[in-house]
Design brief:
Helix content: 25-40%
Order of helices and strands: HHEEEEEHHEHEHHEHHH
Strand order of the largest sheet: 3-2-1-4
Number of domains: 2
CATH topology of the largest domain: TIM Barrel
Strand content: 15-25%
Structural class: alpha/beta
Radius of gyration: 28 Å
Number of helices: 10
CATH class of the largest domain: Alpha Beta
């Protein structure tokens, strides 16, 4: 009995590679409606302010925007590139830290429970002069970013030295915030590297981060007691011209208020108002 003709392995191997590849068409990836979905057993939306918890909800996010916030329904899990199962958890907006010095995580625990004047002038300022560098700020900010992510803080209002290093680290972490450059009438740790023209630094950073979706650059005169009238008045003028926010310490202690009245005849807030800081 004669064998029927067929294709041998040898003959298959002689077929052009292009012909073999043409037969194996790649499967098209499914088009997902959402980049990220969250199934929220308990949702605290904080819409319009009141505290009201909604149960068994869904949040669908596309291109960084909430496209859907509403009741969960079966099938949503197939419409998401990634789905977070929030059952057993509370889903809520990210927390906001309204005043922080991110890199100072590296100073945590130093000189607790001492008067503010002692803590700042006798401990922290000398330590900053001796230790703070660009690397210090980068490391401290990265540590702070990890802590913020772990505990649900998504936005900060930041003021410190080496604002550019802080802003770049914060951007890389995927977090939001206003990062402001510190100014004062005393020497700053960054002066040796960046010079003393802080307004130039802020203008350059605002150009670098113009249009950034999560970050804004601002001006941060340290405090009324560390900035003279001339510097504060210029901050007000520059902020108005650049359209940038101002971040400042004010009236932190009774001593500060008393010393301001003795020196200027007005409280720190009244002085800032006179110099245009509160109207910028």
């Amino acid at each position: 009995m004669k064998k029927k003709p067929g294709l041998s392995a040898k003959k298959l191997s002689r077929k052009p590679a292009a012909a073999l590849k043409a037969k194996a068409k790649p499967r098209a990836r499914p088009a997902f409606r959402f980049d990220l979905g969250v199934r929220a057993e308990l949702l605290l939306p904080m819409k319009d302010g009141p505290i009201a918890i909604a149960k068994n909800q869904f949040l669908g996010i596309k291109d960084g925007v909430f496209e859907v916030v509403g009741p969960w329904r079966p099938g949503y899990e197939k419409e998401c590139t990634k789905l977070i199962d929030g059952r057993g958890s509370l889903t809520m907006p990210g927390l906001i830290n309204g005043h922080t010095h991110l890199a100072m995580t590296l100073f945590r625990g130093l000189e607790d429970d001492v008067p503010f004047h002692v803590w700042l002038f006798e401990r922290i300022l000398p330590l900053e002069a001796a230790l703070v560098s660009k690397r210090f700020v980068e490391d401290g900010t990265n540590l702070a970013a990890l802590e913020c992510i772990r505990f649900g803080v998504t936005t900060v209002n930041e003021m410190y030295f080496y604002a550019g290093a802080t802003a770049r680290s914060w951007s890389d972490a995927g977090l939001r915030g206003i990062v402001s450059q510190t100014l004062a009438d005393f020497p700053l740790p960054e002066d040796k590297d960046l010079g003393t023209d802080k307004f130039k630094i802020v203008r350059e950073l605002r150009r670098e981060f113009a249009g950034h979706r999560r970050l804004e650059i601002g001006l941060a005169p340290h405090a009324p007691y560390s900035c003279g009238d001339e510097l504060l008045a210029r901050v007000a003028a520059e902020a108005t011209e650049m359209g940038c926010p101002i971040h400042i310490h004010v009236s932190e202690t009774a001593r500060e208020v008393e010393e301001s009245i003795a020196k200027y005849g007005e409280t720190p807030v009244e002085r800032l108002d006179r110099l245009g800081i509160l109207r910028s």
